Description:
Layout: E1 5-6, E2 34-41, H1 48-66, E3 73-80, H2 85-97, E4 101-106, H3 110-123, E5 127-129, E6 150-152, H4 157-169, E7 176-181, H5 187-202, E8 204-210, H6 219-228, E9 232-236, H7 239-251, E10 257-260, H8 269-272, H9 276-279, E11 283-286, H10 297-307, H11 316-331, H12 337-346, E12 349-350, E13 356-357, E14 367-368, E15 372-377, E16 380-384
Parallel strand pairs: 2-3, 2-4, 4-5, 5-6, 7-8, 7-9, 9-10, 10-11
Antiparallel strand pairs: 1-14, 11-15, 12-13, 15-16
Keywords: Signal
Pfam family, one: Peripla_BP_6
Family: Belongs to the leucine-binding protein family.
Amino acid sequence: MNKKIVSGFAIAAAATLAFGAVATAPANAAPKKSVKLAYMGPLTGGAAALGLDQIPGAIWAIDQYNRTNPKVKIELVKADAQCDGTVAANVAPGVAADKGIIGVIGTACSGEARNSFPAYKAAGLTMVAPSASAVDLTDRKSKSNGFPIFHRVVANDGFQGPALAKYAARGVKAPKYFLVDDQSPYGSPLIKKDVTPIAKKLGTIVGTDSVAQKTADWSSVVAKIKASDANVVVFGGYDYDAGPFVKALRAGGYTGIFAGGDGINTSDFIKLAGGATIAEGVRMSAASVPFDTLLTAAELADFTKVTGVKVPGLYAETAWTATNVFIQCIKEGKLTRPAIQVCVNSGTFTAADKTKFRFDRYGDPTVAAAVAGWYVKNGAIVFDTVDF
Length: 388
């Protein structure tokens, strides 16, 4: 597989993050002995698996650095935004108010990112996201872009959408697509803008639907799909909806392909779908590669020792890379928010797979992992080395 492409907590709990005002050190103060980086993403709530799968990459990266006994150590602050834009809008100001935080590893979700931008732009707080993939976040023409503070180390959905449409229909002679989105800032554009054009070229779109997040009853959607005679269902949304959706489809007699983007590609998906038998064959996409395939046996053993995780989850690899963007700048003596922003905007960095990359003006990486496919087989999510 070609692994390169060229350019792409609850509100009440926020207080527990100890976001206190920190006085700015006077000019003659002793040099800083530590700085903080915040990881922002879902750590509780319905989408928790997405954040819990990737944060070990950040934890390990910081531990690796701190073990070198540097002059300036790094403390990781966890900012749980639950993959919810409303929660993120309340958490971000607290992160921004902590003057010790000089960078944000995040956000994990696109909706979190959009609603965090006002606070972080005002504070000049640089973001490097492991998985927020919506195209508009780095679109210079979009009013919702994160310029100049937002960056990501993952390819955007302009790459994932077409790949997902292709992967979903692989091996299907006459694809009849039924496209469903969850109305979220991630799922809706993924389906409507990025999957749809390719689906039209590869086959026929026999139906579409748009449902609210955390839908309890999927019977009407299942009925529409069965009536449409679709043989490929593509869902744009998160695992907590995709699992029950697949379960309802199988219970309703649908035997065709079910596929979804990286939002469903989590360690919780099979359980949410009702088990291995129901989830068997489900296809998924993501602009990532399994972190363990990039590590030596000794590195993987160290990762497990530090994090307690035996098999790294999706985007642990990009979280490690995003964290190391900041670590490189800190090693270079960039210990203030303005200095970090200049460094991230202008530096050259090394990804987990050893490739070098920079960020373009609006925050996309010049090199990122290509979108690949995963599928459920015998109760496990298996990486499929597909070149799209």
